[in-house]
Amino acid sequence: MNRNTLLTGITYCLIPALAWGGMFPVMQVALKVLDPFYFTTIRYIWAGLILLGMLIVFEGKNVLRLEGKSWKLLFFGAVGFSGFGFLTFVGQQLSGPSGAIIASVIMALMPLMTTCVNWAVHKRKPKPSTFISIFIALSGALLVITNGDPSLIVQTKEHIGASLLIMLGALCWVIYTMGGSQFAGWSPLRYTALTTCFGSLMNILIVLSATVFGALTMPSAERIGSTGSELLYMILIAGVLAVFTWNVGNKILKPENGMLFMNIVPVTTVTISAFQGVEVGRLQLAGILIVIIALVMNNLIQRQRKEAGEYAK
């Protein structure tokens, strides 16, 4: 991997990490008005339509062929856009006022989850340096969130069920991200668009079934309209832009490297809070620096191994 390709991959992974850092504060507002099931369903219907339009414009109608992979598309679409969307935001809602912080911290566990899934499924025992990079980055992210006060993390025990839901949602996104490797020869846009559409169909089926059986209540048009700005952000920024660039970046860097950027999510959340007038402490600034150092360190190690010929081209 040459330097330009590496920088391109980093850029594509950085964009969604920043976008998703703002996702949880936005959802904290939206979840006060709209339940996570209907919000997620509406979000991905529009995101799927936009991505499908982009796919047809840029790659033509021929790429709409499923090539016998409909069940894979349904599985990864459901895991990524039903599993992640429903579990994560239900957990955030159940966590109450601290939901955005709890969710952003748990997202930082994705690199560790990716390493464990790779180890379990592909028998790829990680290099010690990879574990070191993950734990350093995670430590920095936790320092940003807690500002040196561990009690803020301990308090999540009060919402253990909600935290487990968020963790399962994060695992779903790890599986979805790794699923891109199952579609060799497909562009990231094709994988993104078709899995989003299949995931949206699954969302519609789940929500309509739950509504028919009385588990959910269909929101009014007025209530949906009151979350208009939040929906726009979640559809265009945290949806279309973030998911597409995420899949591109992970195709370049590979999920075990791309997932490290999820450590930036809680950092971004704190940065947004600072713009909103929340004071950012010195320890939080130190945590941001630690995260950056960990990401740079991992990439430097990967580059050195490449130069040494450890990895085959």
Automatic annotation (TrEMBL):
UniProt main location, coarse: membrane
InterPro entries found in the cross-reference section: Diverse_Substrate_Transporter (IPR051258), EamA_dom (IPR000620), EmrE-like (IPR037185)
GO CC term, one of those recorded: plasma membrane
Spans through the membrane: 37-58, 70-89, 101-121, 128-148, 160-179, 191-216, 231-248, 260-277, 283-301
Membrane topology term: Multi-pass membrane protein
Alphabetized UniProt keyword annotations: Cell membrane, Membrane, Transmembrane, Transmembrane helix
Subcellular location per the Swiss-Prot or TrEMBL entry: Cell membrane
Domain of life: Bacteria
Residue span(s) of domain EamA: 8-145, 163-299
Family label: Belongs to the EamA transporter family.
PANTHER family, per database record: OS03G0707200 PROTEIN-RELATED, TRANSPORTER, DRUG_METABOLITE EXPORTER FAMILY
Protein's UniProt name: Permease of the drug/metabolite transporter (DMT) superfamily
